[in-house]
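Translate structure to sequence.
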């Protein structure tokens, strides 16, 4: 799946948490959200800086604005979450893994509060006062667990999906006609590309499709 196809798929499946997403769909979407957020933030601050300079005789404006990039992040949060769940499905994992880092982060923040101020504590020698020992242990433990889960999730995001159908749906790369057509177009011999040799071109395309099924998808026969 190409860059524009991945963007289209992300917005078409805005809140679709079922099915599967290939590596290319996921990583092209991640690249799109990163670049778009960066460009929006840069353009907004450039425009505001120029406006401020014209209004104040060339003086530089202090601070930065993140309004547009923040709005974009909110608008793409749900499809980003959905494509990540579908990517997990592609490697045969439950989408519940997406929630685990959030839970661990909340536990880590709770530990920080317990170890510092806020009057949050567990029953024990400290009563209702902050409990630094338990809070510190909770914050460190949750932080380490969060790092382990993040590494595991990254590994799954770069892993090739389950070949063929799995419990979450069919292989998104199975019978990828776009790939086959592009590959065929660049590998059809010159003598088979002319209008007078449609049969040879079709035959060669079928050969390419068979090789793709065997070598990329692992299918035989």
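Result:
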């Amino acid at each position: 799946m190409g860059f524009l196809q991945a963007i289209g798929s992300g917005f078409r499946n805005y809140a679709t948490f079922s099915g599967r997403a290939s590596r290319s769909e996921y990583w092209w979407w991640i690249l799109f959200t990163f670049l778009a957020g960066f460009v929006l933030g840069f353009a907004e601050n450039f425009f505001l800086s120029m406006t401020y300079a014209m209004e104040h005789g060339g003086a530089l404006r202090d601070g930065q604005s993140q309004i547009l990039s923040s709005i974009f992040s909110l608008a793409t949060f749900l499809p980003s979450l959905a494509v990540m769940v579908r990517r997990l499905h592609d490697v045969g994992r439950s989408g519940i893994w997406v929630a685990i880092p959030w839970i661990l982060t909340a536990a880590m923040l709770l530990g920080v509060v317990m170890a510092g101020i806020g009057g949050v504590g567990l029953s024990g020698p400290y009563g209702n006062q902050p409990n630094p020992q338990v809070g510190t242990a909770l914050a460190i433990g949750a932080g380490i667990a969060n790092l382990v889960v993040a590494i595991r999730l990254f590994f799954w995001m770069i892993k090739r999906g389950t070949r063929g159908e799995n419990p979450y749906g069919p292989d998104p790369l199975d019978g990828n006609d776009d790939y086959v057509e592009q590959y065929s177009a660049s590998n059809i011999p010159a003598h088979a590309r002319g209008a007078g040799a449609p049969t040879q071109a079709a035959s060669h395309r079928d050969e390419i499709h068979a090789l793709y099924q065997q070598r990329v998808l692992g299918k035989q026969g």
